[in-house]
Amino acid sequence: MARAQFSAETSGGGAFVRQPNRFTDRVTPDSDSPPGGGPDAQGRWPLEPGRYRLIWCRACPWAHRARIVRNLLGLQDAISLGTVDPIRDERGWRFSLDPDGFDPVLGIGFLSEAYLATDPDYTGRVTVPALVDTRTGRVVTNDYPRLTLDFSTEWRSLHAPGAPDLYPAELRPEMDALMAEIHRDVNNGVYRCGFATSQAAYEEAFTALFARLDALSQRLADRRYLMGEAITEADVRLFTTLVRFDVAYHGHFKCNRHKLTEMPVLWAYARDLFQTPGFGETVDFDHIKRHYYGTHAAINPTGIVPLGPDTSGWATPHGRG
């Protein structure tokens, strides 16, 4: 069997099985803790503007969705932002983009320091996004799917005036089912293609990925967004994979039945979102390419980062809406 990128997350059949999220506390106005306190008995931290720091990487799709939702809801003043370098080595995510290599608020050089401050016995892979308490330096959560939904619901009192409802109550049953399919076959599906170490595991993931993309193309053929005429969390989750598709997943992860630019409905839909305030300005194609091609030595042992593709098409008219 081929060498795995993450051996601890590879099954005996060569399939990539993503590790569970270690930290799953939540920030909520229902916390029993007083202001400035830690989590209550149910793992609920008090909702306080300016207290928590979102650590993200411009290259990471899971972290990217948190950055976009924070922007769309107008939570920039309520939640500060720390950015790690796209190049991750054996020590994990680094704050080397900051002066002297330390996050200016948390005072740490590696995100792993916050993980170990929370759980000294933690041995898993350190991941972004992570919401960190600036008072204690502890990780509140790295549960990326719950984090963005909480931004929409638990943080509502701190939203900017006129902020969109990204998780409408009446749409949640349908949205939850759709987002589960998108996660399994698309968001995580590209990784299941790229990190597979057997032909059978790769082909299974590849087939499911493009079957789902075909179904999503059909869904979006007669509606502007996944749930209708308004952007929701589902669109954010799909966008962060689509915007990385041609620059990383098509070549690096062998997701090469078609490029995004060769799937007309999805390409127009992705450009529509890219050109929406809160989306395109958070995309960094250089960081994306340098991360994927420069840190997955089992897949790209030379570490060469491709010069293409041309990304100027993202600014062209999309013809939707």
Automatic annotation (TrEMBL):
Residues 1-45 are annotated as: Disordered. GO terms for molecular function: glutathione transferase activity. InterPro entries: Glutathione-S-Trfase_C-like, Glutathione-S-Trfase_C_sf, Glutathione_S-Trfase, Glutathione_S-Trfase_N, GST_Omega-like_C, GST_Omega/GSH, Thioredoxin-like_sf. It comes from Micromonospora citrea. Residues 168-295 form the GST C-terminal domain. SUPFAM superfamilies: GST C-terminal domain-like, Thioredoxin-like. The active site is at 60 (nucleophile), 191 (proton donor/acceptor). Pfam families: GST_C_2, GST_N_2. This is Putative glutathione S-transferase. Keywords: Transferase. The record marks 249, 292 as: Lowers pKa of active site Cys. Glutathione binds at residues 93, 125-128. Signal peptide: none annotated. GO terms for cellular component: cytoplasm.
